[in-house]
Amino acid sequence: MNNFDSIDIANKFAIFGEFLDARSFGNGHINDTFQSRWNQAGTIVRYTHQRINEKIFLRPDKVMENILRVTTHIAGRNRAAGIYDLSRRCLTVVPARDGKPWARDAQGGWWRTYLFIEDAYTRDSASSPSEARFLGEGIGCFQKQLMDFPLPRLHDSIENFHNMEKRYNRFYEILKNDPYDRKKDAACEVKFLLNNEERGSILVQALREGRISERICHNDAKMNNILIDNKDSKALCVIDLDTVMPGSSLFDLGDLIRTVSNTAQEDEKDVQKVSFNAELFECLLEGYLPQMRGFLNQQEIELIPEAGRNITQIMALRFLADYLEGDRYFRIKRPEHNLDRCRAQIALIKSMDINCEIARNIVQKLSH
Ligand code: ADP
Ligand code: GN1
Ligand code: MG
Predict the structure, then answer these.
(1) Which residues surround ligand 3, an ion (CB under 5 A)?
(2) Which letter, b or e, does each residue of 259-281 get, where b requires 16 or more Cβ atoms within 10 Å of its Cβ?
(3) Residue 274's pLDDT is what?
(4) CATH superfamily ID and name for 6-118
């Protein structure tokens, strides 16, 4: 986006002052994120603008309706608890000049704007045990604040997002058609995922049978969707709320386990570097479980180690499916990026399996 486009877009939102400049920002796989700077009566103020990926979010207006309800709820909780720094602890949607929480550009693209949260950063992998603890605490607090989220039900921003069975059905179709003749490059990965199909249904089955509860959760709670405070390295604000909708708390905890307990990046090419770090897993739970005390049932607690494996598996499946389909979903930075991501996820699952007894013991120790 050049400055001419960015001023056009930024001007659609209810922002005062003088537009200075805008630049691309962030590391997300889905939306396009920009940061703009404004001179507001002598103070430089920043905003975040995002083009919502409408190939993925078919109803951006419904996504924004969800986000407005969720952010209003969380901000209300924080205010009631007397928490300071409210606009750094929850996303603030800046309305368009017509009052809507989104605006369209000349090409029909959907845009939204948030206050830019200053003095915070995100990480793609954990740098210390205390960071893991704070991230666990952050997502636990987020889930807790949404426990009494009122009706009506939030929209499903993406249908069957974590439904492994549906994901496998689609995978079989892709394998049958193999539209880019890429299946041959991924024979081992395909075999691994097919061998693990049944185990992959554990969470979705437990949810369907009511053994674990449906709750409002984030559904994309990887660690770089949590802003960390520069000041004290604590989790500051859960962002990227497009997929907040009904699901299982274990989907979020699972995604955090997948990203925090991995000793390498999600897309590490050298799979020797990928492994499950039990210490980081333990610290993550030390932060998470106290927040959720009294909310998780026994079955949910027992399924915690499986949740990390399960979300890692669904990501392996999704990355591979996207590779086979010609990289249409996740943003890639190199050819075979999605295949590398899939391989790294599979390496992580294998390491989780080697460490499953250790993980189970940690959960048992911390949940008593
Ligand atoms: P995507 O859906 O593409 O992952 P995100 O909403 O996660 O997009 O945003 C991408 C990145 O932009 C984040 O990782 C974060 O670094 C930054 N970001 C997003 N929103 C804000 C905000 N309100 N304040 C500061 N940084 C933000
Ligand atoms: C995508 O938008 P981002 O980069 O935070 C994806 C998640 C995946 C993640 C893998 C809507 O998240 O489901 O877990 O990539 N988001 C969507 O890094 O599909
Ligand atoms: Mg993101």
Answers:
(1) 28, 225, 240
(2) bbbbebebbbbebeebbbbbebb
(3) 98
(4) Phosphorylase Kinase; domain 1 (3.30.200.20)
